[in-house]
Design goal:
The protein is of the alpha/beta class. It has five helices and seven strands; from the N terminus they run E-H-E-H-E-E-E-H-E-H-E-H.
């Protein structure tokens, strides 16, 4: 089984580190963290993620904008939105939303669902 790589798009470093740790506990070998759409795109282009987690509100934009930019370059990638602003997301097709504060089992179920749906 190949090692999995995740991209965490989150501007609160402590939350990003918590998500990183949870993903590593759940089998992701590597995780990149980005706090803005442009940084997220840059990191995704350097190493294509197997999973993206994205907050709604981030530096200089939204996680939705970041995900759209990444997918425009790399094609579909499973996404889990981890946010305290789920209502702002509206209806994101085939995307999974995890409310903050993050419960490890909820995040695990969400990323597994996102990977299976992809």
């Amino acid at each position: 089984m190949r090692s999995r790589h995740a991209l965490v798009i989150e501007d609160e470093i402590l939350v990003a580190m918590e998500i990183e740790e949870l993903l590593k506990e759940q089998g992701f070998a590597t995780v990149d963290i980005a706090d803005s759409p442009l940084e997220a795109l840059d990191k995704a282009l350097r190493r294509k993620p197997d999973l993206i987690t994205a907050d709604y509100r981030i530096v200089d934009g939204t996680g939705v904008e970041a995900v759209k930019m990444i997918m425009a370059h790399l094609g579909p990638i499973p996404v889990v939105y981890v946010t305290g602003h789920a209502k702002a997301l509206g209806e994101q097709d085939n995307d999974v939303v995890v409310q903050k504060p993050i419960l490890p089992r909820v995040l695990a179920g969400a990323w597994q669902h996102a990977l299976q749906a992809a």
